[in-house]
Design brief:
The protein is an alpha/beta fold. It has helices at 4-14, 39-56, 67-76, 124-132, 161-176, and strands at 60-65, 82-88, 93-94, 97-98, 111-116, 138-143. The chain has a four-stranded parallel β-sheet, sandwiched between helices. Strand 5, helix 4 (124-132) and strand 6 (138-143) form a beta-alpha-beta unit. Helix 1 (4-14) runs parallel beside helix 5. The relative contact order is 0.15.
């Protein structure tokens, strides 16, 4: 919730006046519970969607980073409250865990995937095959010389968080005609 990727994504959404809810999954930070390998964490996403529906009564655009993108995409694909999905640093293998995306072929909401072309947890060839199975509308963006956290590489050491933000803003404007 407090890492640079999540913070910069929040700024991209709030630039359009969109309300943003950031939360920790169970067992992270001061939240209750314990890690549940993505199963119970989907309930955390549903609880956040319920809270937003009850308190804000507005359509939702889900955005998640890394583990949060996998869990959130699984939970939100097909949910009529969710009008669009953003996956940042979408992982396929990280910290000894494999992430699958078998649900994506049935996910008809607009989707944006943004990853660094040097993302150690989302190799380009594997992520492109995952993305290919998702139906339109969809967009996949590779940020050049960026790692999983959108930091630079040895060839280009400056952070790339501003490029990630720009892609989110561009997608929001083009898909949802926000200004």
């Amino acid at each position: 919730m407090h890492n640079k990727v999540v913070y910069h994504a929040m700024k991209a959404f709030s630039a359009f006046g969109l309300p943003v809810l950031r939360f920790n999954f169970r067992g992270v930070g001061l939240s209750e519970g314990s890690h549940d390998n993505g199963l119970g964490e989907q309930d955390d996403v549903f609880a956040a969607l319920d809270w937003m529906q009850h308190n804000l009564s507005r359509p939702v655009i889900f955005a998640g980073f890394s583990f949060g993108s996998n869990v959130g995409l699984r939970a939100c694909c097909g949910d009529p409250r969710v009008k669009g999905l953003v996956g940042l640093g979408v992982p396929v293998h990280a910290e000894g865990r494999d992430y699958t995306y078998k649900f994506l072929p049935k996910c008809t909401q607009p989707k944006l995937f943004v990853s660094g072309d040097h993302d150690q947890y989302g190799p380009r060839d594997i992520l492109e095959s995952v993305f290919a199975r998702a139906p339109e509308p969809k967009r996949l963006v590779w940020i050049a010389n960026a790692d999983h956290f959108f930091q630079g590489t040895a060839e280009s050491p400056n952070p790339k968080l501003d490029l990630m933000q720009a892609e989110i803003r561009l997608w929001l404007q083009s898909v949802f005609t926000l200004s």
